[in-house]
Amino acid sequence: MDVKTKKKKTNWSNNEFETLVSEYENKFDVLEGDLSVFLTGSYKRKAWESVMEWTRKWLNMQSPRLIISTQKFKKQKKIQTII
């Protein structure tokens, strides 16, 4: 019995993953540090937002497939609102 299984496409390319890890490492002390008077939850949240914003900017510059998928999403949304 041959059972064919679909191989799941990865969510992140190697470049995207390396970028995210690099930014995480830059903010590691803040993100993984214990809460204190100087290191608050809001400071940690801002650090995560900074990591994700920088990663998004880098991906927008590097990844044409992200732009294409965004355009497809907008087109689908426009079609659904017409229906």
From TrEMBL:
Matching InterPro entries: Myb_DNA-bind_5 (IPR028002)
Residue ranges annotated for the Myb/SANT-like DNA-binding domain, each copy included: 8-52
Name recorded for this polypeptide: Myb/SANT-like DNA-binding domain-containing protein
